[in-house]
Amino acid sequence: MRGRKHLAIAVRRTNDEIATVTRRLPTIFTGSFRQIPLVRGILALAETLVLGIQCLLHSAEVFTEEEQIKGKSAMLWGSVAVGLVMGFALFLAIPLAITRAVDPYIGSDLVSNLVDGGVRLVIVIAYMGAIGLIPNVRRLFGYHGAEHKVINAYEAGAGMEVKDVQGYSTAHPRCGTGFLLIVLVIAIIAFIFLGRPPMYLRFLSRLLLLPFIAAVSYELMRLGAEHVKYGIVRTLLAPGLALQALTTRQPDDQQLEVSLSALKAVIDADAVDAEATERGNRAELQVGEPG
After folding, report:
1. How confident is the model at residue 290 (pLDDT cuts 50, 70, 90)?
2. How many domains does the chain contain in total?
3. pTM for the model
4. Which of 10, 54, 168, 197 could bond to 149 as cystine, CB 3.0-4.6 Å?
5. Residue 235 lies in a domain
6. 179 phi and psi, to 5 degrees?
7. Considering only CA atoms, which of 68, 44, 66 is closest in space to residue 214?
8. Residue 239 and residue 258: Cα distance in Å, rounded?
9. According to DSSP H, which parts of 89-108 are helical?
10. Is the Cβ–Cβ distance between 19 and 62 less than 8 Å?
């Protein structure tokens, strides 16, 4: 769970104990730059990648500590590297390769880019659906659903016990899955204006423009989440919310306990930080007052 200034990670050990740690977020992810439109979208993309890897590595380390696995550090970082390579291959290289194969039969630059974007969209959706069939990934998606339930309950002012949050939705308008769909759609629109350059330039352009497309997509996601009470906004968000059915599952009570532990930890850490800041401000005022 990410708070205003802290990150909390909760992991259930094999002995059923929930181990929770909190870490202060780097200033780059919480400072004034994070408030600048478009810039904050690029920072959010970097933050998601960095913090996501940190959380996965931490949870894997907790498990490997119990299992006493040798060479675990190299194994974990090797898994991350393989995942990143597979991501670029699946969502960038393969769609372009398919587009290149059919390009000789396409007379329009517009259609060529629509084919590229359509193939990418199909691959992403098919990938989400396929990995959801893996038992361990299904359990991971259960934790994703637990995260959404807990946040939905917290934002609604509900209690922070399992019985209080179980009835809430596993979908959330600020979910990364919905964000990914916005990125894919904005990318299709953006790449249409680039025409049909040689394939190596198409690859580079997609790679280099990704941060800027993510920045615009992030602003659209924020705007939608802030105005979700309006019917037209809910209609526009509906595809992203529906897509979350592929990356979330109904969590069990134990998964909700873990998510609640993380949320409570980050709330407490932020509260302590805010209290310390307030005390510091009061001290500065007292020192600055004339005697």
Report:
1. very low
2. 1
3. 0.85
4. 168
5. yes
6. -60, -40
7. 44
8. 29
9. 94-102
10. yes
* C-beta of residue 23 within 8 angstroms of C-beta of residue 6: yes
Residue listed under structure tokens 């629109």: 189
Helix (H) or strand (E) holding 35, with range, is none
Does the residue 38 lie in any domain? no
The amino acid at 262: A
Position 86 in a domain: yes
In this structure, which amino acid lies at residue 111? V
Residue 21 one-letter amino acid: V
CA-CA distance, 248 to 260, in Å (whole number)?
17
CA distance 91 to 89: 6
Nearest in space to 246 (alpha carbons), one of 130, 95, 135: 130
Q: What's the mean per-residue pLDDT of the chain?
A: 87
In a domain, 10, yes or no: no
CA 291/CA 283 separation, integer angstroms: 14
Residue ranges in 227-252 assigned as alpha helix (H): 231-243
> Residue with structure tokens 């933050």?
47
Report how far Cα 241 is from the mean position of its chain's Cα atoms: 14
> Tokens 């949320």 label which residue?
263
C-alpha to C-alpha distance for 248 and 78, rounded to whole angstroms: 26
Contact by Cβ (8 Å): 115, 225:
no
